[in-house]
Design brief:
Number of strands: 10
CATH architecture: 3-Layer(bab) Sandwich
Strand content: 25-35%
Number of domains: 1
CATH topology: minor pseudopilin epsh fold
Distance between the termini: 72 Å
CATH superfamily: minor pseudopilin epsh domain
Radius of gyration: 29 Å
Shape: rod-shaped
Helix content: 25-40%
Largest sheet: 5 strands, antiparallel
Number of helices: 2
Oligomer: single chain
CATH class: Alpha Beta
Order of helices and strands: HHEEEEEEEEEE
Length: 172
Amino acid sequence: MPISATGIWTARVRGFTLLEVLVTLLLVGILTGLAVLAIGDGGAAAHLQAEARRLAALIDLHRTEALLRGEQRGVAFAADAYRFLTLGTGGQWTVPVTADATDYRELPADIELRLRVEGQALSLDQAVTTPQVLLLSSGETTEFDAVFVSEYQRGYQVAGDLVGQLRVGPVP
C-alpha cells in the first residue's frame, strides 16, 4: 500500500463500477414499482365508492323521512351535484323544511355523475328545478341507476328499484 508523506497509509479511491450502478437502479425500480402497485390508482376507486355509498345513505334517509312525514321528496341530479327537494303545498319543489348539509352535495372535480331513469339515459348538462327521481310517502321510488365515474375508473353505481331497495357496487 502506498504511504503518504505524513506516513499514513492511503488507499486508492475507486468509483462505482457500471455493474454496481445498474444493479442499484434495478433494485430502486423494482421497489418503486411495488410501491405504485400497493398504492393503486391513488384512491380514485375509494372516492367513487365513498360517493356512491353517501348517495345511497342520503336517499335512504330522505326516503325514510318522506315515509314518516307523509311528504313527497325527490332527487334532482346534475353532472357535478345532486339536491334533495320536497313537494310543497303549492305544488312547487322546494328545499326540505329541515334544510341541512344532507340536502345538497357538490361532487369533487374529478368525479362525474351519470343517470338512467327507468332505463333511459338522461342528460345532466342543465340545472334542473324538478327532481328526476321521486321518493314517495308510500315508500315507492322511481327506478334509477346513478353512476359515479372518474377519468381512471369504470365507476360505482347506486341502483334503486320501485320498492325503494338500493344496491351499491362497481359498474359491471
